[in-house]
Amino acid sequence: MPELRCAGKSLPGFISVEVEDDQRVLRMSGEIDAEVVDAFREKHPAAPLITAVDLAGVTFLSSAGLSFLIRQTHPGRQAGRLPVLRGVTRPAHRVMQIAGATGLFQPAA
User: What is the pairing mode between strands 13-20 and 23-32?
Assistant: First the structure.
Protein backbone atom coordinates (compact mmCIF):
# COMPACT_ATOMS: atom_id res chain seq x y z
CA MET A 1 0.00 0.00 0.00
CA PRO A 2 1.40 3.42 -0.85
CA GLU A 3 2.36 5.77 1.91
CA LEU A 4 -0.24 8.44 2.61
CA ARG A 5 1.64 11.60 3.38
CA CYS A 6 0.92 15.27 3.93
CA ALA A 7 3.96 17.47 3.94
CA GLY A 8 4.72 20.89 2.67
CA LYS A 9 7.64 23.23 2.95
CA SER A 10 5.45 25.84 4.62
CA LEU A 11 3.98 23.44 7.17
CA PRO A 12 5.68 22.99 10.56
CA GLY A 13 5.05 19.25 10.70
CA PHE A 14 3.67 16.26 8.85
CA ILE A 15 1.30 13.36 9.29
CA SER A 16 1.48 10.10 7.39
CA VAL A 17 -0.08 6.65 7.48
CA GLU A 18 2.33 3.85 6.65
CA VAL A 19 2.05 0.09 6.55
CA GLU A 20 4.59 -1.80 8.67
CA ASP A 21 4.32 -5.55 9.29
CA ASP A 22 0.62 -5.58 8.34
CA GLN A 23 -0.10 -2.71 10.73
CA ARG A 24 -1.22 0.76 9.76
CA VAL A 25 0.90 3.24 11.64
CA LEU A 26 -0.13 6.85 12.10
CA ARG A 27 3.13 8.80 12.19
CA MET A 28 3.36 12.42 13.27
CA SER A 29 6.44 14.60 13.30
CA GLY A 30 7.29 18.22 13.97
CA GLU A 31 4.69 20.71 15.16
CA ILE A 32 1.24 19.17 14.86
CA ASP A 33 -1.28 21.99 14.79
CA ALA A 34 -4.62 22.71 13.10
CA GLU A 35 -2.95 23.70 9.83
CA VAL A 36 -1.08 20.38 9.56
CA VAL A 37 -4.20 18.39 10.52
CA ASP A 38 -6.36 20.25 7.97
CA ALA A 39 -3.79 19.69 5.21
CA PHE A 40 -3.74 15.95 5.92
CA ARG A 41 -7.54 15.70 6.00
CA GLU A 42 -7.83 17.63 2.74
CA LYS A 43 -5.65 15.11 0.93
CA HIS A 44 -6.88 12.01 2.79
CA PRO A 45 -10.54 12.35 3.83
CA ALA A 46 -11.03 8.60 4.50
CA ALA A 47 -9.40 7.36 7.68
CA PRO A 48 -7.88 3.86 7.56
CA LEU A 49 -7.97 1.61 10.63
CA ILE A 50 -4.93 2.64 12.68
CA THR A 51 -3.26 -0.05 14.81
CA ALA A 52 -0.20 1.90 16.01
CA VAL A 53 0.85 5.50 16.55
CA ASP A 54 4.41 6.81 16.30
CA LEU A 55 4.98 10.23 17.86
CA ALA A 56 8.79 10.01 18.05
CA GLY A 57 9.29 13.17 16.03
CA VAL A 58 6.60 15.38 17.60
CA THR A 59 7.96 18.63 19.02
CA PHE A 60 4.56 20.25 19.65
CA LEU A 61 1.05 18.79 19.84
CA SER A 62 -1.83 21.26 19.82
CA SER A 63 -5.35 20.48 20.99
CA ALA A 64 -6.31 20.13 17.31
CA GLY A 65 -3.50 17.60 16.87
CA LEU A 66 -4.58 15.63 19.94
CA SER A 67 -8.21 15.66 18.84
CA PHE A 68 -7.17 14.38 15.41
CA LEU A 69 -5.07 11.63 17.00
CA ILE A 70 -7.97 10.49 19.18
CA ARG A 71 -10.49 10.57 16.30
CA GLN A 72 -8.19 8.75 13.88
CA THR A 73 -7.63 5.90 16.34
CA HIS A 74 -11.26 5.65 17.52
CA PRO A 75 -12.28 2.90 15.05
CA GLY A 76 -9.59 0.59 16.49
CA ARG A 77 -10.88 1.12 20.01
CA GLN A 78 -14.44 0.48 18.80
CA ALA A 79 -13.19 -2.83 17.38
CA GLY A 80 -11.80 -3.72 20.81
CA ARG A 81 -8.14 -2.96 20.09
CA LEU A 82 -6.21 -0.19 21.78
CA PRO A 83 -3.77 1.37 19.32
CA VAL A 84 -0.15 0.85 20.32
CA LEU A 85 1.60 4.08 21.28
CA ARG A 86 5.28 4.06 20.46
CA GLY A 87 8.01 6.62 20.34
CA VAL A 88 6.10 9.30 22.20
CA THR A 89 8.08 12.46 22.94
CA ARG A 90 7.92 14.36 26.20
CA PRO A 91 5.91 17.28 24.72
CA ALA A 92 3.35 14.93 23.15
CA HIS A 93 3.10 12.77 26.28
CA ARG A 94 2.54 15.84 28.46
CA VAL A 95 -0.39 17.07 26.34
CA MET A 96 -1.90 13.58 26.30
CA GLN A 97 -1.45 13.27 30.06
CA ILE A 98 -3.06 16.65 30.81
CA ALA A 99 -6.01 15.76 28.58
CA GLY A 100 -6.39 12.32 30.18
CA ALA A 101 -5.82 10.60 26.84
CA THR A 102 -2.96 8.24 27.73
CA GLY A 103 -5.41 5.46 28.68
CA LEU A 104 -6.78 5.44 25.12
CA PHE A 105 -3.55 3.82 23.92
CA GLN A 106 -1.54 0.74 24.72
CA PRO A 107 2.13 1.36 25.53
CA ALA A 108 4.61 -0.29 23.17
CA ALA A 109 6.17 -3.46 24.54
Answer: antiparallel
The CATH number given to whatever domain includes residue 63 is 3.30.750.24
Number of domains in the chain: 1
| Global pTM value | 0.86
- DSSP state, residue 104: G
Residue 26 to residue 58: CA distance in whole angstroms: 12
User: Which of 97, 25, 22, 19 lies closest to 54, judged by CA?
Assistant: 25
Q: What is the pLDDT along the chain (109 residues), one digit of tens a residue?
A: 333 344 444 788 999 999 998 889 999 999 999 999 999 998 888 878 899 999 999 999 999 999 999 999 999 999 999 999 999 999 999 999 999 999 999 998 7
